[in-house]
Design goal:
- The structure is a single chain.
- 53% of the residues lie in helices and 13% in strands.
- The protein has two domains: 103 residues; 71 residues, no CATH class.
- Helix 4 crosses helix 5 and helix 5 crosses helix 7.
- Strands 1-2-3 form a three-stranded antiparallel β-sheet.
- By secondary structure, the chain is of the alpha+beta class.
- The protein is built from ten helices and three strands; from the N terminus they run H-H-H-H-H-H-H-E-E-H-E-H-H.
- Pfam families: COMM_domain.
- InterPro entries: COMM (IPR017920), Commd2 (IPR037354).
Length: 215
């Protein structure tokens, strides 16, 4: 919190916001009233609400345990005390089922990567075109609403009644193909960005926040 008025009453601020989160976040008038009661500003309360929403979503997505939650909070916030961490944890677990249901409903149409096809197209120099043209990389992304490994085909749902799996037409309803093309310079830039993201994922700050994925 950068606001001096809010930071002068950290315990009151941290206790009141989580307890009244549901009502505060739904009405700007209540947000303004809460800011006045906390001797803070509207922007500070709104930023705190946005931070709480992010905390709820990330904690639910990663299914953080109590110990992992405290470790992540301690590494991200320097001035938070033990009591405030406990209040935040109780707030997270009280809303976890609600957030999980909302996330599941919102991710029903989310597309996942399955496979990539690519090819390079270009023309060499000729009498008509003395300078060599820049090649074009064309890509086809295979996406799927069902999160499955790209190294295997999706297993159809087996029905004991008729002893058959889903038809190919039923399976294709969840799949989508996206065509894209780029040039070598842009492709190199994309590779550099992805490699930098992988390096950032290995930093201590990210490791302390993200629970290691068990294969």
């Amino acid at each position: 919190m950068t606001d001096s008025a809010a930071s002068s009453q950290p315990d009151s601020f941290s206790v009141t916001l989580p307890k009244r989160f549901g009502s505060i976040s739904s009405d700007t008038h209540i947000t303004s009233f809460s800011a006045e009661k906390l001797s803070s500003t509207y922007e500070t309360v709104r930023n705190a609400l946005e931070a709480l929403v992010g905390l709820l979503i990330d904690s639910t997505k990663l299914a953080l345990s109590e110990r992992e939650f405290y470790t992540a909070i301690a590494s991200s916030l320097d001035n938070i005390n033990e009591k405030q961490s406990e209040i935040l944890w109780q707030f997270v677990i009280s809303k976890r089922n609600l957030v999980d249901n909302v996330l599941r409903a919102s991710c029903q149409d989310e597309l996942y990567f399955r496979e990539l096809e690519w090819r390079i197209e270009g023309r060499i120099a000729s009498r008509r075109q003395r300078s060599q043209a820049s090649p074009v990389i064309k890509m086809k992304f295979h996406l799927d609403k069902e999160c499955v490994s790209e190294y295997r085909e999706k297993v159809g749902v087996y029905s004991p009644a008729d002893g058959a799996k889903d038809s190919p037409n039923q399976l294709d309803q969840t799949r989508r193909e996206v065509l894209a093309e780029t040039d070598p310079i842009m492709l190199q830039h994309m590779i550099q960005v992805l490699e930098q993201a992988l390096l950032d994922a290995r930093t201590r700050r990210v490791r302390n926040y993200v629970r290691p994925t068990q294969s």
